[in-house]
Design goal:
mainly alpha, Serine Threonine Protein Phosphatase 5, Tetratricopeptide repeat, 13 helices
């Protein structure tokens, strides 16, 4: 019995020691959470400086979680969006930026938050052969930056990114159109090139789209449309190699780049060249 009592006493001591160890861990966690906001924020900045963007974002989130009504929370919220963006965690960056806009839509950093949303989509844009849903989301977010915060530097940066995204979409239309043209599906190709002219006319793809229309219409024997496409190309891009190619193609077929017929391209010619806006 004496030995059993000693064993029981030993087990009890071991159990108490185990409890003390567990309790110490809990106290350490509480101490971690009880750190002042400025210390957690400083740690987050240090992590960001060391290139640990994800860890930084989590620490900025901790500031917001633990001190939701402090001035530190406001600063941490926008920094969280930036940190996650730097770490290419675009979903988290967008969520943090949107949360900032929900709380502080008129704040001086609101334009940057909106711009970060656009960038989070823009930096995920894939090649022209893939689905363009992210490109469309980027366009909407970037345009929102321009419209809501027109007098900021972020509106100007958003405009540049917007133009590049539009060029990307036009490039997809061109890639599909060239594929149809190469395989002799001329009407399908024309529809793609027409979309570039009508929807993406300010992009760098416009000159080639007009030249491809010359090629497609000539292949179908529609000379009026081919000549008119060449005329628009010559008026707007006379120094372009695409115009030189179209000019050669037309003249080799006994034609000239001039407005002819009454089709959709003639309407474009009247508007762009003659200034007869409908």
């Amino acid at each position: 019995m004496a030995q059993f009592g000693k064993a029981l006493k030993g087990a009890s001591c071991a159990f108490l020691i185990l409890l003390a160890g567990c309790s110490g861990g809990d106290n350490e966690q509480v101490t971690q959470d009880d750190r002042p906001a400025d210390q957690i924020y400083a740690d987050a900045e240090a992590q960001l400086d060391r290139g640990n963007a994800e860890e930084a974002g989590q620490l900025f989130d901790d500031v917001e979680r633990l001190y939701p009504y402090s001035s530190w929370a406001k600063r941490a919220m926008i920094m969280s969006a930036y940190a996650y963006y730097r770490g290419q965690q675009f979903d988290k960056a967008e969520q943090a930026a949107r949360r900032y806009l929900d709380f502080y839509p008129a704040d001086k950093d609101a334009a940057y938050a909106q711009y970060l949303i656009g960038l989070s989509y823009y930096d995920q844009i894939v090649d022209v052969g893939r689905d363009q849903e992210l490109t469309l989301k980027a366009l909407r977010a970037l345009r929102e930056t321009e419209l809501r915060y027109p007098d900021t530097e972020y509106a100007r940066q958003a405009k540049l990114k917007y133009d590049l995204a539009m060029d990307h979409l036009a490039g997809k239309e061109m890639a599909i159109g060239r594929y149809y043209l190469k395989n002799g599906h001329y009407l399908a190709a024309i529809n793609r090139f027409r979309a570039v002219i009508e929807e993406y006319q300010t992009t760098s793809q416009t000159a080639e789209a007009l030249h491809r229309l010359v090629e497609s219409y000539l292949a179908l024997g529609l000379t009026d449309e081919a000549q008119t496409a060449g005329a628009i190309l010559g008026h707007n891009f006379s120094a372009s190699p695409w115009y030189q190619d179209s000019y050669t193609l037309l003249t080799n077929n006994g034609l000239r780049p001039e407005a002819s017929g009454t089709g959709w391209l003639r309407s474009i010619y009247d508007q762009v060249v003659l200034g007869r806006w409908l």
